[in-house]
Amino acid sequence: MPLKHTSLLSLATLLLAAITPSAFAAPAQLPLLPHNVGSGSVAAFLEKVGSVLVSASKLAYEAEWRYATNITSDNQEAATEAELVLNELIISLLAESRTYTGTTPDEKRKLHLLSLYGGVPTSTADQRALSTVQGEMSAIYSTARYKGLALEPDLTELMATEREWDVLLDAWLGWRHVTGPHLKYLYTTFATLSNIGAHDGGFADTGAQWRAGYDMDGAAFISHMEDVWEQVLPLYEQLHCYVRGKLGEVYGEERVDGKDGLIPAHLLGKFRVRQ
Ligand SMILES: *[C@@H]1O[C@H](CO)[C@@H](O)[C@H](O)[C@H]1NC(C)=O
User: Which Gene Ontology cellular component annotation is one that this UniProt entry carries (predicted)?
Assistant: First the structure.
């Protein structure tokens, strides 16, 4: 399951779209950098990345889609195989990309964006294990049932429309019991392998890899997030207070206002409590 590469196609598209004729028109400005693969110019390399990634990721996405819409072990195996092919390509492109530094800000940025896909473990056994564990986690989410109900659409609809406290709480806990304990150990394995992949790609860990994707360095990103959080916090607190008050009118303040000040999650209409 190429879940880690969900935006790979868009990166490839960006690379394709963003390579302007002028990038090809200025070969004289390219520095003589060490490279032993490819045609030698960073512009040509980036063009190659764009085209090969589009076709390779298309195959992997198609296999992933067949699995996501038809969960069988054959389709999982096919999705894993397609991802391994894509991984091999990514690893070789990343190795080649490290021989370039780029001349223009545009080229440097594209090389940086490409490096963000360095979350693939070098070892094929680890790649296979990572892909398998992702596939197994997806399968648990898609096939788990609580009292015969699937997450989509049954339980999702129930959370959105049901108003009875006990029914909501039962669905909330029930769904977690049929998924969480099964996912827990797989997720630990996933996190370990994912960190190995990030490390093999030149990052401290997966968190550092994620934080590198915002056109600023990781430390700046953390402090930027702190600033943004400080800005939205007053609004968040007011909203929280308002929602808690309204739910208190329906369910009784003593049930909604826990000692911790948190709103019970099963009342918020969604399993992921986003709205
Ligand atoms: C689901 O996948 C299997 C292969 O595992 C295939 O034989 C079957 O035709 C597929 N079903 C649908 C509805 O596509």
Answer: membrane
| 20-65 confidence digits (pLDDT tens) | 333 333 333 333 334 444 446 899 999 999 899 888 899 999 999 9
Instruction: Return the domain boundaries, the chain.
Output: 1-117
Q: Which of 64, 55, 65, 61 is nearest to 15 (CA)?
A: 55
Binding positions for chloride: 214
Lowest mean pLDDT among 2-6, 20-24, 39-43, 163-167: 20-24
| Ligand 1 and 152: CB distance under 6 A | no
Using a 10 angstrom Cβ sphere, with 0-12 exposed, 13-18 middle and 19 or more buried, the burial of residue 93 is: buried
Could you give the CA distance from residue 84 to residue 124 in angstroms, rounded to a whole number? Answer: 8
* Beta carbon of 74 within 6 Å of any ligand 1 atom: yes
| 151's tokens | 């997450």
Two structure tokens written together for 103: 């001349």
